[in-house]
Design a protein that fits this description.
The chain folds into two domains: 184 residues, Rossmann fold (3-Layer(aba) Sandwich), CATH 3.40.50; 82 residues, Putative methyltransferase TM0872, insert domain (DNA polymerase, domain 1), CATH 1.10.150.170. α8 packs across α9, α8 packs across α11 and α9 crosses α10. A seven-stranded mixed beta sheet has the order 3-2-1-4-5-7-6, with helices on both faces. The protein is built from 14 helices and seven strands. The chain has 313 residues and is α/β, with parallel strands linked by helices. The chain is globular, with a radius of gyration of 21 Å.
């Protein structure tokens, strides 16, 4: 298994701007790269959440290095308000979220996240709920096509769903290689070199883990916990996730378009925004990072900061 390489690490630190004595949350602990970097940069406290019990177990080494400054919590970052307040934390100086799946999860064949390894069709980041195999073998054809299109932006979703239903009629589809082969038989190879199964596997993973719902809950929760000057930094890897983050931050920072001049609501004064947008354009990895880590190519970093003296949303 390869070493975990955190993406946009220096850019994250520069944007988060942690300071001595601060209290920060890494809501997607994963391999611990972001949490470790924050702890090494300043004398602060870091809380870290991950729904994957294996990620929490891997954090033992980092916890041993920072026993009084790092706190690990198993759970979903969308539940951060409850998870933190039950531990006496109601205020944060910064939150960082690294969305998507970790290298550890991708490269563990038994987790079923990747079509590059033969394994069971699981894809759960935690241990509860239906697996990808449950969806593949149980969803009606139309609903399956909607999942592939909505969460993976797969243009051939209907054809793929039809092929899956046809195949599962003969026998259940239970492994990553089985599913990938079905998709590759339907979707032609792209000139970009991207595997034809990529978007479908992404869509299933997002659906299995309710990732978009989790992101929406997490963004709102993070903003409710940030104090004045507190910053929320989010790194996304897929357009569906990045679009959601961009729209949320744009709206919260008051950058939404003005109403039509024919709309009476346009005559009303606009409330001062509670947050300031720190990234008018998403920060992307440089050529050196993408050459060293191909998974960094699609990364986008966006951030907002709570306005000092501004209103609470």
């Amino acid at each position: 298994m390869s070493r975990h390489v955190p993406v946009l690490l220096e850019e994250m630190l520069e944007t988060l701007a942690p300071r001595d004595g601060g209290c920060y949350l890494d809501g997607t602990f994963g391999g611990g790269g972001y949490a470790a970097a924050i702890l090494d940069r300043v004398a602060c406290t870091v809380w870290a959440i991950d729904r994957d019990p294996q990620a929490i177990a891997r954090g033992a080494a980092l916890l041993a290095r920072h026993p009084h400054r790092l706190n690990l919590i198993e759970g979903c970052f969308g539940d951060m308000v409850v998870l933190l307040r039950t531990r006496g934390v109601s205020h944060l100086d910064g939150v960082v979220l690294d969305l998507g799946v970790s290298s550890f999860q991708l490269e563990d064949a038994e987790r079923g996240f990747s079509f590059q390894y033969d394994g069971p069709l699981d894809m759960r980041m935690g241990t509860a709920g239906p697996t990808a195999a449950d969806l593949i073998n149980g969803l009606p054809e139309q609903e399956l096509a909607e999942v592939l299109f909505r969460f993976g932006e797969e243009r051939m979703s209907r054809q793929i769903a039809r092929a899956i239903v046809r195949a599962r009629t003969a026998s259940p589809i239970t492994t990553t290689t089985e599913l990938a082969a079905i998709i590759r038989h339907v979707v032609p190879q792209e000139h970009s070199g991207m595997d034809p199964a990529t978007r479908s596997f992404q869509a299933l993973r997002v659906r299995v883990n309710d990732e978009l719902g989790e992101i929406e809950r997490g963004l709102k929760a993070a903003c409710s916990l940030l104090g004045e000057g507190g910053r929320l930094v989010v790194v996304a890897f897929h357009s569906v996730e990045d679009r959601l983050v961009k729209q949320f931050m744009t709206r919260l920072s008051g950058r939404t378009p003005l109403p039509s001049r024919h709309d009476p609501g346009g005559l009303l004064p606009r409330a001062a925004p509670a947050f300031r947008l720190l990234t008018p354009r998403a920060i992307r990895p440089n050529e050196r990072e993408t050459a060293a880590n191909r998974r960094a190519r699609s990364a986008r970093l966006r951030a907002i900061e709570r306005v000092v003296g501004g209103p609470r949303p």
